[in-house]
């Protein structure tokens, strides 16, 4: 959902409300988690744990950005998801689990297998519900839900891994005397073998939210996120529960359930990305038939290789200003395609008309100043 979006006054209010709520909670959560981290070990230990916990973050983020190439989500919202997962979800989950242990008398095994999945998936998933409530226009379907869920899960896993790595080194995790060997084992299991665990769990909630956005039924729009959350809790519970019965059972669950589930989820995400190409082609074909865009431009916008080729061509013949114009045009056409698809499905957003008019106006403004390979180069390369 990249690029600037047209906003009505109501949408601006929703955007402000979302920004304020998320910012305030991230600041409070960050303060709490930084205090927890400061109390979890010596500075050198925490620095080492932080460096090790960072190792899987870059590759995971890159994978989700790769999935998000058709219609890149706003970087500020992706960053908000990371921060929410790292600070808000972790802090609230710790508080809820502490309350459960204090007042309900839950033992450690029950907390790990039941309470942790319920609370952690709820605190992570709440970010997706805020998007659904206040920034629904940023969600076009399942793939968007998976991407945002992935960012929240990556942020959560990053901070949680710091705590686990520090505890293993200090010997405060109840697994032995600690030291380098314990730290190495924890790093291998959490950062190399299963860095995808939290993003995978929360992806179920993201899928539920994505399906809800595309649904015509009010009942399904309410139920589907809850169903996704239930699957997230179940997957999380099975994973955590496997650690209670020894290393052999843990690796059996990893090989029989978790690894196949991850591969299935990755395959589903790739299929969803390919289905977006087919959906965009169909939606833009209908838009072209209505005279909203030139039909000859569709391939240069939908096909990722052709999109990249056209941007390289724009830079070669017109420099950075031509490249900016090409990006603006392609982004506006893609946005129009997603919006038009929702119109064709019968699930247009409330501001459908205003947004559609803005996209069409932007397309008409930029199109005279760009050309695709094999077309006549315009005398000007930017409408600015």
Automatic annotation (TrEMBL):
Q: Which domain of life is it from?
A: Bacteria
Q: Does the keyword Transmembrane apply?
A: yes
Q: MF terms per GO, please?
A: metallopeptidase activity
- Recorded protein name is PrsW family intramembrane metalloprotease
Entry annotated with the keyword DNA damage: no
Under Pfam families, the record lists: PrsW-protease
Which species is the source of this protein?
Answer: Nocardioides agariphilus
Transmembrane segments in this chain: where?
15-39, 45-67, 79-106, 112-134, 146-167, 187-215, 222-239, 251-272
What keywords does the record list, in alphabetical order?
A: Hydrolase, Membrane, Metalloprotease, Protease, Transmembrane, Transmembrane helix
Q: What is the organism lineage in this UniProt record?
A: Bacteria, Bacillati, Actinomycetota, Actinomycetes, Propionibacteriales
The record's listing under InterPro entries reads: PrsW (IPR026898)
